[in-house]
Amino acid sequence: MKLHATIAESQIEIELHEQGSQVLAVVDGRKYDIDVRILRDNHYLLISNAQVFDCVVEGRPESGSTLDVIVGTGLHAVTITDPKRLRGAPAFGAHGDGAARIVAPMPGKVVRVLVQVGDSVEAGAGIAVVEAMKMQNELKSPKSGTVLTINAEVGATVNGGDLLAVIE
Amino acid sequence: MFRKILIANRGEIAVRVIRACRDLGVSPIAIFSEADAGSLHVRLADEAYCIGPAASSESYLKIQSIIDVAKQGGAEAIHPGYGFLAENAKFARAVSAAGLIFIGPTTDAMQVMGSKTSARRAAIAAGAPVVPGTTEALKSLDDARAAAARFGYPIMLKASAGGGGKGMRQVANELDLRSALEAAQSEAASAFGNSEVYLEKIVEKPRHIEIQIFADQHGNYVHLGERECSIQRRHQKVIEECPSPINDAGLRARMGEAAIKIAKTVNYVGAGTVEFLFSDTTREFYFLEMNTRLQVEHPVTELVTGLDLVCEQIRVAAGAQLSFAQDDVQLRGHAIECRVYAEDPENNFLPSPGRIDFLRVPAGPGIRDDGGVTEGDEVSIYYDPMISKLAAWGRTREEAIDRLRRALDEYAVGGIRTTLSFFREVIRDGEFIEGRLDTGFIARFNERRGRTPTSRGSERVSESSVNQDIAIIAAALAFKRAQSKSYGIEVRQTDSKWRMTGRASSMDNFARDRSGRF
Asked: I want to staple B371 with a disulfide (CB 3.0 to 4.6 A). Which of A54, B11, B158, B388 is the partner?
């Protein structure tokens, strides 16, 4: 099975051949003979050349979604894509029209909205304040521009990833 | 001794108090919100009562509901832990009025020390040096402007009812004063139900050193040495140690004496902590505040003194004399604690709630983990994000650091981001190892990390090519398994010897459990 992986902004090809707990992996041409133990869902013990790697894979393992892989104590963000499923998927790194989206970084409650639609803001200006776990976090605009839309209402509960405002 | 104690708290501190109850043969009663129904502190208790919905204002802060279930369960005393109602004099008064014992100081002492402004007045009365600033809450922006001008920028705004870094803002100049004041007041109102804020001049590069004191109802006072809590982010302690790396017996005796004098002005009873700022350059210390409760960082004092502060709190509340005198208190070795928070250090320490889908807690020589979660538990958005406190003890500071480093590398939490990765870097930092600590440590540390990305990542670079490949392989394996599953193909590894033996031995256990013999 051939897959594409993206790690630290580079694209790498990976091939896996499984035979029971023995896996031959070819990563960008580098060969690894690995003994794989599945300790639990998403918890893998990999032994390669007598080197021990304790790995935890977090996230939904779907084509194009990013997984957080803990190897020992190190955290790696890996995106796996299946080349057979690329058709119709948006191109890599496709960006919008340069508008900055202010997104709730975690679930919480909107306690203040600091701007109005049409306001000009400087880069670093506070846009909204979201409270979670008793701490208030001010979300700042990453760029200078005009406030295009505001989706945040004081008192509203938001989920991580919810769009709160767009700055253009 | 009490027969039953209700613990008016949740998470790791509720678990800690339950353990003390068990040691003393007292039956622990837990309370929980709807969000905490299956959590560890409930599982470890003998009895548990739901006291309301997830929001703490509807549950852990509901004074009457808590007292009602305490009476219903037949508790004789209530331990408040820390946070929530621990420093709420109204709660302590209501507990006494209901004929129950509040495990903590008198309401008078809580009231005086509960307001940072009246605490400052008490410290002045005890002859202790205080940080220059207002002794009353600020009445208006104009009042703040005038006071700031009088003491000179930079200044610090602090919630009178404050603690835990909430309602605190550093202000560099007058331009920032208005927004900082509004933010501090709003945060104070939401965290403590009291928007009063006062102002202090900033002491340059201070160490934050605090003295643990203990008093009983018979007029005995002792101090248990200091804790250094200089490593803070957002004015919240993240690493604490005992003793301070300064380790100066003369200074310890002077600060201990000052702390006891302050505690005596309010006839203090139980465990308390007097916080000071200490300047390395002038060797002067200033009273900051007194916390009328157990502290999060109490384990480092316990490790170095060999005392159990929570058991002692319960014994003192039951009317016993202190089980030790000042001369019995010996500091042995060195202990360091890290607060493990569900926060993302790579993303400005934003809270990272979610389900803990993997958890490996370190153990071994000199390691103590006071946790409040197990694998599969949900870290909720409603409460403080601290999930555990990891502490290491060694004969020397060096040995404690070695052990803590080992334990941090062993610690693994999956599903949420934690501050563990941050601690792994701090513990390897030169300034930390040399003990050159002050409250600006984290800002400098972050600057060092930002400035020298290569040196920070150097370890990663050398190990990285292989580790990156391994990460890709693990991700690809997970992807493949998920794919096969979604096509309805059951992926089964050929049973390895490990798995077979594991299964067989768990069958053995099962058989033994059933037969009731071991």
From this structure: B388
**Gap between the Cα atoms of A64 and A92, Å rounded:** 9
Q: How many structural domains comprise chain B?
A: 4
User: A127-141 pLDDT, tens per residue?
Assistant: 988 887 777 788 888
* Residue position matching structure tokens 């008192």: A155
The helix/strand/coil state of B310 is: helix
Q: Quick one: pLDDT at residue B511?
A: 36
pLDDT digits (tens, 9 = 90+) for B210-226: 999 999 999 999 999 99
- Res B453: pLDDT: 45
Instruction: Check whether the bond before B154 is cis (ω within 30° of 0).
Output: yes
- Give yes or no for a contact between B334 and B242, defined as CB atoms under 8 angstroms apart: yes
Q: What percent of chain A stands above pLDDT 90?
A: 35
What residues of A are in contact with residue B351 (Cβ under 8 Å)? 106, 108, 132-133, 135
CB of B355 closer than 8 Å to CB of B381: no
Residues of B in contact with A69 (CB under 8 A): 471, 474-475
Query: Chains A, B: CB contacts under 8 A, how many?
Result: 166
- Picking from B235, B343, B381, B417 by the largest number of A CB atoms within 10 A of its own CB, the best residue to mutate is B381
User: Residue range B333-348: average pLDDT?
Assistant: 93
Q: Is B350's CB within 8 Å of A36's CB?
A: no
- pTM for the predicted model, two decimal places: 0.80
Residues B397 and B306 in one domain: yes
The structural architecture, per CATH, of the domain A2-85 is 2-Layer Sandwich (3.30)
**Plot region of B405 (φ>0 → left; ψ -120 to 50 → alpha; else → beta):** alpha
Q: State the complex-level ipTM.
A: 0.70
B219 and B337 fall within a common domain: yes
Cβ–Cβ gap B469/A27 under 8 Å: yes
B177 and B315 co-located in one domain: no
Considering just the CA atoms, what is the radius of gyration of chain B in Å?
A: 24
